[in-house]
Design goal:
The protein has 4 helices and 3 strands, in the order E-H-H-E-E-H-H. Strand 2 and strand 3 form a beta hairpin.
Amino acid sequence: MLDPRSNQELPQIPAKRYFTIGEVSELCSVKPHVLRYWEQEFPQLKPVKRRGNRRYYQRHDVLMIRQIRSLLHEQGFTILGARQHLEGEKSQDDASRSQQLVKQIRLELEDVLQLLRR
């Protein structure tokens, strides 16, 4: 393990819209070349690229990097295992949203049915 510090020991994320790769490196205790590699390995990680192909990370990117760091360095996942874990979380979130949507539609249809029966 490269850095045994836990995410609780990482610095607080400042209230900014965009972060450079150097800032993210310090916020997440991950070297810039590792961040660039993770961009290739994790499709969820897509920083905005601007002038001269410079990367600008948003808050959700920093949180994702911290989660990836935790999976790899603290929980012992492999790159493939971490990628599958993150994809599984996304599909669970999608399934949960779908279930909520179905419940909402069902309630609305029941209301329409009651109105039609009157």
